[in-house]
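Supplementary Note 3. Input sequence used for the single-chain structure prediction.
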Amino acid sequence: MFDSDRWSEIWQTLSRNKLRSTLTAFGVGWGIFMLILMLGAGNGLANGVNRAFSGWASNSCFMWTQVTSIPYAGFPRGRGFSFNNSDVEAIRQRVPGVDALAPRLQLGGWSGSNNVVYDGKTGAFNVNGDVPDIMRIQGTGITGGRFLNEKDVADSRKVCVIGQRVVDVLYKVDEDPLGTFIRINGVYFKVVGTHKTKATAEMDENQDATIYVPFSTFQRAFNAMNEVHWFAITAKKGTKAGDLEKDIKKLMAERHHVHPDDEMAFGSFNVEEMFDMTNNLFLAITGLGWFVGILTLISGVVGVSNIMLVIVRERTQEIGIRRSLGATPGNITMQILLEALTLTFIAGYVGLVSGVFLLEGISAMGIDSDFFAQPEVDLTVAIVALVVLVVCGLFAGLVPARRALSIRAVEALRSGT
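The predicted structure, written as discrete structure tokens, is reproduced below.
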């Protein structure tokens, strides 16, 4: 295997016709290059999407009320209604799959913005009434101070946590907002913390322009007593968010006199379903990458096999002399297999390294977006690709090796005369 004469002979054989060997090797190298490139691009898409939604709990769902579309229990269709405080406890007691439950309020509605004043400066920002559990569902990074706690909610404290956009608009550069007071719709709140969203998706950019106040304080300060605008919920381990969503809708329909079949009465957004769909998409992209790459690699390997058949035909007399001098079938087979394996491995390794360098170059250039970031291939993929190379190299040499063994010494010697 490590005979220097044998490897010298292999090199001489492959370099005898450099153009032919180079063109043959190109097909194998291109196959591995495309495989690495497609897998890296798929990972780049996955990294971008995962980063874009890094602030979301993957097992969560959100639910709100709309208007009824079916008359029920004496109530007409088109009736509007709201969740209330008692629904929170009802969900906790009657829906066992709930992990974190956060009732939420927003001043001005989902898209509402409100006048916030500090030191003569005014800005329009989202104002949410929340409980501490919201951090387990739709997380944001605390950059200073703290987030809301249970004591804030229990005592209806007039405190708030402001986003980075709020800091940029209302405060001077290098001014510390902690401990200051801002006025929201005429009510003063003490700033106890600042936050910045972890997510990069465009849909989450407005979180940096969000002000969090305690849920109970919001109800008292902004005339929203016994109101809940929507729920944010996560499921316990082993429970699907979709099943949880159905159970809560069924319970809320019962409590608010909504027809059980009224699909328009409640709105919802299931993050788990979105994550599952995205993961399945990336799985399909990865599978497509392997499929296309391996098919391209196989076409290159077929070329190697054909070239090795040509080489065997050119070396008919040489093989005959070896057989007549006592070379065993194993020696002949090993020689042909090593030649095919060497050509395949060198070409594939060059394609592998080229693909990795290209991906690293793209990462170094900072070609990032909301849905594409850091294309890469991990060590496992590289090892698998090398194993595929070795297997393909062996297969490329099998047919030429069998052809070499079928050559009879006498006929081979006669062909050279």
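DSSP finds twelve helices and eleven strands in the chain. The chain has a mean pLDDT of 81.
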